[in-house]
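Changelog note: in this version the structure field was regenerated for every chain. One regenerated record is shown below for reference.
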Amino acid sequence: MDISVVVPLLNEEESLRELESWIKRVMIENDFSYEIIFIDDGSHDKSWRIIEDISKNNPGIKAIKFRRNYGKSAALYVGFEVTEGDVVITMDADLQDSPDEIPHLFNMIKNEGFDIVSGWKKKRYDPLSKRIPSKFFNLITRKISGIKLHDFNCGLKAYKSDVVKSIEVYGEMHRYIPVIAKWAGFSKIGERVVQHQERKYGKSKFGSGRLIKGFLDLLSISFVSKFGRRPMHLFGTWGVVLFLIGFVIAGYLAYSKIFLATYKMTERPLFYLGLLSMILGTQLFMTGFIAEMISRNSSERNKYIIQQEL
């Protein structure tokens, strides 16, 4: 199969028929074999009923319904698990992502050798209150990840099948899939300017709270990717540094007391700074040691992705 289109949705009853018809037209015009995977993330409108209805006339439709709302990351993760296409396309169900972009994205993955191609909504029809925070987080993510994408949060993306079968997304991490994929060894990440449509039906499902959650998830990805298998490298290093700083301060105060007959050690603020540094250093070192022991006994300690085998 050429393409799997994964569409997470929440209360999008007005747009589903039009979206399915649009995707189907594009696939037929380009002679693609395809499947559409709708993930109903706990909708409480008629979305599921409509999916059941349109699936009767389109055998290429698969659908999964969540009992409640788990979030876009969970929907994508479940959708990725059941994909069968060589190229996986993700898009939102609100008609703001254009299915007409699918052939171009497919070509970049299949013929140009990209692992991931991310859409860039260069001209956006979102309100200013959504565009400004998005620009800020895209800038921060570029700096931290080193991936030169302009729009990490664009729902329209294309992936090699190997990519989506090798990564796990949860929380608010769907917007950082290129970052997760890069640290999993998929380094050829491209970008394409895509058409962004004005919202035709309903309203956005994302509130301001997602910004804080998204930033925390970025920090989490950075930490786990760099130190998840070697926590001692982080905690142990800082523990030793802080302990040595405290030890040097204690040595200086002891020297001053013995040879220079200055104030009592406990009367100087520097004494408490040194003591605090040694205590924190010891705690960080022990945290790293315990985390290393847990990591060494983990069943996934030596679970790596093998690209090819003979």
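Spot check on this record: The two ends are 25 Å apart (CA to CA). The chain has two domains: 3-227, 231-296.
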